[in-house]
Each structure stands twice: as structure tokens, then as C-alpha cells.
Amino acid sequence: MPTTKHKIFKIKVSDDGKFTISKTVEKTINEFLSEPNNIYVNHSVTTLSEDIEEYDNIKTICKYVLISIIYKDLDSTSLNLKGASKKMKETVQREIESEDAIQEPDILTELDKEIKEIESKIEKENTPANNV
Q1: pLDDT at 90 over 70
Q2: Which of 4, 5, 7, 3 is nearest to 69 (CA)?
Q3: What is the pLDDT of residue 68?
Q4: Cβ atoms within 10 Å of 19's Cβ, excluding its own
Q5: Angle 116-122-124 (CA atoms, 0-180°, nearest 5)?
Q6: Global pTM exceeds 0.85
Q7: Is 68 within 8 Å of 10 (Cβ atoms)?
């Protein structure tokens, strides 16, 4: 089962009044979300502000924006998607997001099943019976 994890991004806000994100922060977040083994679950955004007194007026200044992302990590599971095809990644991500169990594919053909039956019969015949 994938492990649910939490990651926080701390973004410094400029004093110009525009809430712009630097290209490096945007790139870091995009790279994190594009990682195939990170399945997005939820997020929250909050600000860290500071009260400053100017000329007997208290002014609140936003210093940082925190983005908290909750995701499922597939790195240590059998569903590791590194090196998988794009279609396989989309399928696994869709199944993880909907929390449906992914069924193991049945790779045995009819011929494989017949061979297993014959092998088990031969094994039973060759096993000596315990006579008391």
C-alpha cells in the first residue's frame, strides 16, 4: 500500500504588493508534482504574517506563503512507476486517486494451467504413501 506523506513549500513574498512566485520555486513545485511516484491527494495554503508598528499604526505584512501538499509515495511499493510507460502511470495514478485496489493481471494461459495440473498429478504419483 502506498505511504501517505506530507511536504511543505515555504515561499517568501515580496513587499511590492504582488503575490508573484519566483521561477525557481515554481519549477521546484512542478518537478515535485510531476514525479510519477508522487500521487497528489490534497493541499492547503496559509500565510505567515508579521505585525509592524509604523507611526502608531499597526500594519500587518505578509512575509511567507506556506503550501502544504499531501501525497501518496509509491517509491517503496510494488507500484513503483519509475521506468513505466505513460499509459501505465496514468492508470496507476487514477486507481490510487480513486482508492480502488488494482488487481493482479492473470498471465497464465490455458496451456500453462494444463501443464500445472499435469505437474501436480505427477508429483502426487511420485510421492510415496505413508503406510503404517
Answers
A1: yes
A2: 7
A3: 92
A4: 11
A5: 100
A6: no
A7: no
What is the tens place of the pLDDT at every residue in 63-78?
888 889 998 887 777 6
Distances (CA, A) of 38 to 71, 98, 128: 6, 15, 54
In degrees and rounded to multiples of 5, residue 26 shows phi and psi of -60, -40
Residues 82-104, mean pLDDT to the nearest whole number:
72
How are the residues of the chain apportioned to helix, strand and coil, as percentages rounded to the nearest 5?
30, 35, 35
C-alpha cell of 109? 494461459
Strand-pairing partners, residue 61, are 50
Nearest to 73, CA basis, from 126, 36, 28 = 36
Q: CA-CA distance, 12 to 19, in Å (whole number)?
A: 10
Q: Are 92 and 102 in contact (CB under 8 A)?
A: yes
